[in-house]
Amino acid sequence: MSEKTSQILPDHPEEAKMPELRREPVSGRWVIIASERAARPTDFLTNHQPAENNFCPFCEGNEEKTPPEIMAYRENGSKADSKGWRVRVVPNKFPALRTEGEQNVHGEGIYEMMNGIGVHEVIIESPRHVVSLTELGNGNIEEVLRSYRDRLLEIKKDKRFAYGLLFKNVGVAAGASLEHTHSQLIATPIVPQLVENEMERAEAFFNNSRKCIFCDMIQQEIAAEKRVVISTERFIAFTPFASRFPFEIWILPTAHGSHYENQEEGEIEELAEILKNTLVKLESVLDFPPYNFIIHSTPFNIHKSEYFHWHIEIIPRLTNIAGFEWGTGFYINPMPPEEAAEILRKK
Amino acid sequence: MSEKTSQILPDHPEEAKMPELRREPVSGRWVIIASERAARPTDFLTNHQPAENNFCPFCEGNEEKTPPEIMAYRENGSKADSKGWRVRVVPNKFPALRTEGEQNVHGEGIYEMMNGIGVHEVIIESPRHVVSLTELGNGNIEEVLRSYRDRLLEIKKDKRFAYGLLFKNVGVAAGASLEHTHSQLIATPIVPQLVENEMERAEAFFNNSRKCIFCDMIQQEIAAEKRVVISTERFIAFTPFASRFPFEIWILPTAHGSHYENQEEGEIEELAEILKNTLVKLESVLDFPPYNFIIHSTPFNIHKSEYFHWHIEIIPRLTNIAGFEWGTGFYINPMPPEEAAEILRKK
Is A65 in a helix, a strand, or coil? Predict the structure, then answer.
């Protein structure tokens, strides 16, 4: 936890307000909502700090500076790895995991290890040097979201891979080094621990209540209203009850669906719209903050899940993670999600 | 995961090296050791960036700028909240949790919450304006470590608290805002999820093998040698097999002990020595990096545990956490712990 506001601020009237501990029902993690530690969105402003790149390998015309493309949506007649694409997917040049080889699990005393096989791809979202997804037209964003689906459907055919994670890093503080708008896909040979934990807890909830915990949460959020940012016919964006970070936002389809890649065409169009509108609000309130978004979906080996509900988690990166978080898994969030939602709704 | 080295580096000969997935046996988390993504310690150098403070409330003579002291080691005859102290413990002026009140667990549909009761204290490690613990004499560091013990022993008498976490944030990137050397203690009304997870897994290992997993790990590390940084009669410092971060280091007592606060006097003296020597090496290799250290100990309500072994985890904060880590709990570490240990040993 950052001590940003401790010791150096003058006393103020709210000093005695009791912080609230909240539990995120899916992951089980606890969050401390300590609203007196900061109050206004301007308290969180940080530099967007786009990475400085003299040369951008993601711009149209520089196709030979990336590994050969895996897939692209292109103008008719244009050739692979040349101009004429709208969205382009390439392997990461220095991938965290490698596609060739077998898992080869082995041990060394109490230690377990395996080969780092997997997939690490970059989705270049526009041929133009644009730094935010929100600068793209709706049709362009739909194609980005379709490329996510198409890559997941392709990768899950390879039985060596257990899970595919789609995510986006924006700004240096969020881990990006290239500013040209892009996202990434990493497929792993095992189901990641965080995903497994959420699946197990969601399954336990289902076994107990015969209901999807996310469907329940959506109903409760619609009824409570106070944390809803945007709702459309088929999607809802809200600030989660136990938000880890100021202005954290989740986007979920309101009808149950376990896998991102099983969405229908009409859904993708509506998702493009709500994603763009949500990010526009976030960028407007926080002046283009660094952020990550992450798509949580069901592992490949589960054909259809009644208990897990795919969704997108958007986390602005405004506060530092410190010793307390590393030691406990608790987060301290100085911005109550109800206030964050109210501010976002007004934008 | 940062894309720091991706796309912009020229091809190099090691490009085809297979990354390795390693599992940390206590927490169960997986780490990707991707050694070709960076090679030399200088690749990780960041600014120490001490927080700029014109006025330091932690310096001797400014005692009235902090809340009244809870405890201090003082020269004979000196008064509370005045000069003459060597180590001083004060409440955090803007605490994340508050000492007054009851837990009051309650629900709202599927959501659970409780009052944020707890303890949040600051341990000021020196009356002088010193920015690193390593600038302190051994006797001074012993007193810091004794103050940790004394506060834990006192706080655990209050049955409302389940766990006490001692940690240190150094540098802005690690969450510190004041540069004057200090650490913090937060006591929580519930056992944090990360601690519970480690306890459960260590207990399962014990039930299976009748051995403490940490004792086993220590034996294995001593035999393997390659990850050991320093060993003394009663302590060992090594880079863990599944290090999340470059130059991550754990310090453990070699004889089994479940609670930090149950250490004997002679142990504290030896711990001060190995902690200082380890941090001196880290500061020398990485030019005073931002870092956190966290003491992992057994929850208050367990009198003595055969399966959990207290220890200190030191994590330099050199790389950004990005979407992949947030979505999976996986970490990508470009520095194999065996190489890190070799570099640290030579310093």
Answer: helix
Tokens found for residue A5: 């506001």
Determine the Cα–Cα distance for residues B23 and B36; give it in Å rounded to an integer. Answer: 19
Distance CA B27, CA B208 (A): 16
> Chain A contacts of B332, Cβ < 8 Å?
96
Residues A202, A203, A207, A209: what is their CA dihedral angle, to the nearest 10 degrees? 20
**Which residues on B lie below 8 Å from A28 (Cβ)?**
193
Q: How far apart are CA B347 and CA B341, in angstroms?
A: 10
Distance of CA B117 to the CA centre of its chain: 23
Residue of A nearest to B37 (CA): A94
Task: Indicate the pTM of the whole model.
Answer: 0.89
- Asked if the Cβ–Cβ distance from B323 to A97 is below 8 Å, we say no
Domains parsed from chain A with CATH numbers: 13-49+201-346 (3.30.428.10), 63-188 (3.30.428.10)
**Which is it for strands B249-253 and B235-238: parallel, antiparallel or unpaired?**
antiparallel
| Chain B residues with beta carbon closer than 8 angstroms to that of A216 | 109-110
Tokens of B165: 């976490």
For A110, the closest of B96, B186, B216 (CB atoms) is B216
Q: Judge: A116–B19 Cβ closer than 8 Å, yes or no.
A: yes
* C-beta of residue A335 within 8 angstroms of C-beta of residue A282: no
Contacts of A313 (CB under 8 A, 6+ apart): A248, A249, A250, A293, A294, A296, B326, B327
A-B interface: how many C-beta pairs under 8 angstroms?
297
Beta bridge pairs of residue B238: B228, B250
DSSP-derived 3-state class of residue A300: coil
**Among B135, B183, B125, which Cα is nearest to B279's?**
B135
* DSSP per-residue codes, B105-130: -EEETTEEEEE-B-EEEEEE--SS--
Phi then psi for A312, rounded to 5 degrees?
-110, 130
Partner-chain residue, chosen from A2, A18, A184, that has the shortest CB–CB distance to B116: A18
Shortest distance between the Cα of A75 and any Cα of chain B, in A, equals 25
Q: Report CB contact under 8 Å: A326, B315.
A: yes
Which residue in chain A is spatially nearest to B174 when comparing CA positions?
Answer: A322
Q: What element of type H or E holds A162?
A: none
The distance of B302 to chain A (nearest Cα, Å) reads 17
Report the gap between the CA of A168 and the closest CA in chain B (Å).
6
Distance from CA of B41 to the nearest CA of A (A): 19
Q: Among positive and negative, which fits the CA dihedral A89, A94, A95, A98?
A: positive
Flag if A177 and B242 touch (Cβ within 8 Å).
no
Q: Is B309 a catalytic residue?
A: no
pLDDT tens string for chain B (347 positions)?
343 333 333 333 344 566 777 777 777 777 777 665 544 666 655 554 555 557 999 999 999 999 999 999 999 999 999 999 999 999 998 788 888 888 888 888 889 888 888 999 999 999 999 999 999 999 999 999 999 999 999 999 999 999 999 999 999 889 898 999 999 999 999 999 899 999 999 999 999 999 999 999 999 999 999 999 999 999 999 999 999 999 999 999 999 999 999 999 899 999 999 999 999 999 999 999 999 999 999 999 999 999 999 999 999 998 888 899 888 888 888 888 999 999 999 98
Choose, from A120, A182, A256, A296, the residue flagged as catalytic. A182
